[in-house]
Amino acid sequence: MSKPLKQIHLAAHFPGVNNTTVWSDPAAGSQIEFSSFAHVARTAERAKFDFIFLAEGLRLREQGGEIYDLDVVGRPDTFTVLAALAAVTDRLGLAGTINSTFNEPYEVARQFASLDHLSGGRAAWNVVTSWDAFTGENFRRGGFLAQEDRYERARQFLDAARVLFASWRGDEIAADKESGVFLTDADAGRFAHRVAQFDIRGRFNVPRSPQGRPVIFQAGDSEEGREFAASSADAIFTRHGTLEAGRAFYADVKGRLAKYGRAADELKILPGVTYVLGGTDAEAQEKARAIRRMQVSGQTAVKFLEQLWNRDLSDHDPDGPLPAVDPLVGENLVAKGRASVRMFRDPLATAAEWRALAEAKKLTTRELIIEVTGRQTFIGSPETVAHALNEFVQTDASDGFILVPHLTPSGLDDFADTVVPLLQERGVFRTEYEGSTLREHLGLSPVDPARETAAVTASSTATVPTADTVTRTGRARA
């Protein structure tokens, strides 16, 4: 008996907080006008996508005091945009990236619970951390956390938010009435959570939302990120865009679920991918080359080079060879505050690889940077791209994709009109929505409040009022 075809999950990433956007294209539109957000969302919903995804930029990226030429000025607040999109869509999920390093659990939980209510159960939270003092300067606490510390804060932050989401226990009234000890309206939302990062207690004032809590996303490929996703997330946003790397990542993360008492289908793996479509494969390849040159200007190439070399290379010719000197290993001097050099675990080894690649292919600095930062994951005719997407999912390299177009707001249109119908013909993508909530779109089971509370309590000293901690007068015991 042949293996049943897996259904592909698709989502749309609104371009902006990334290095894929092409400002110089005549078709490029506004990044901040609501009409752009609405266009992308309506296109995604027309194509029956699972959700639209907003990244987060808490500070404009800069280096040497200069803003990156591909960054976005004036990015609107995530919750404001998603709430507005809830009013112009009916089924599309609404996913927002909200930082766990510079926010507080009560505020974030309240905002997401409200969004889930306003949208009828379509909210999702992408839990991320921030690791640099550069962004921290915008916040009172400032500074930055070491990687192991920021993931521990993220875990405790998410646990605290789950306590808040689970604190509205009205669904347990019937079960508690027999003992004469039951929850009354006066007990709704009572919570207590004491861990290293948070010591909070009070009342959550948003009733249980349609999904119970938002769908939880996590973005990160590090060891800490993989473990965090396996223990707590419903989906993981990854960067692995090749079959080999995708299969290895898929097997690794799915293999971690069992120790947390989770089944393989309880975590969806969704790489962020780019694409270029053309009438033929050759046409698409030529178009992709032109796009990459627009995405990586000479200035961008030098700035990226500085992140590895950890030196001021402002006088370097991007159309010439790589620098003759080696990267400076040690304290980050050029991208101060961002610690961008940390992206390269071994700068000297990476520089050697780049030099060998440049020499073998006779590449200039700019051409080399285009080569090593290439972002078009799928290039070809609609038929070619549809086949490649389906191969990824059917061979367990992913459960679907978060598509990152290079144009705003029209970049998703061709994909929706040409690739989606081909996937539908293959029987691997829906032709109509079967549910109304994002959890249903993703094929996730309903949230079980008791299981949520047990999972949090197992990893902390969190407590949520239940029948045995509530008196007949409805007061939670201290």
Low-confidence segments, given as residue ranges, are: 171-184, 336-342, 461-478
Oligomer: single chain
**Strand and helix order:** EHEEEHEHEHHHEEEHEHEEHHHHEHEHHH
Mean of residue pLDDT values:
84
In the CATH hierarchy, what is the superfamily of the largest domain?
Luciferase-like domain
Return the domain count. Answer: 2
CATH topology of the largest domain: TIM Barrel
> Helix share of residues?
25-40%
Distance between the termini: 59 Å
Q: In CATH, what is the class of the largest domain?
A: Alpha Beta
Strand content: 5-15%
Q: Rg to the nearest angstrom?
A: 24 Å
* Lateral strand order in the biggest sheet: 1-2-5-6-9-10-11-14
Label the overall shape: globular
Number of helices: 16
Question: Would you identify the CATH architecture of the largest domain?
Answer: Alpha-Beta Barrel
Assign the structural class, choosing from mainly alpha, mainly beta, alpha/beta, alpha+beta, or little secondary structure: alpha/beta
Number of strand elements: 14
Reported for the largest beta sheet, the result is: 8 strands, parallel, barrel
Family: Belongs to the NtaA/SnaA/DszA monooxygenase family.
Protein name: NtaA/DmoA family FMN-dependent monooxygenase
InterPro entries: Diverse_substr_monoxygenases, Luciferase-like_dom, Luciferase-like_sf, NTA_MOA
EC number: 1.14.-.-
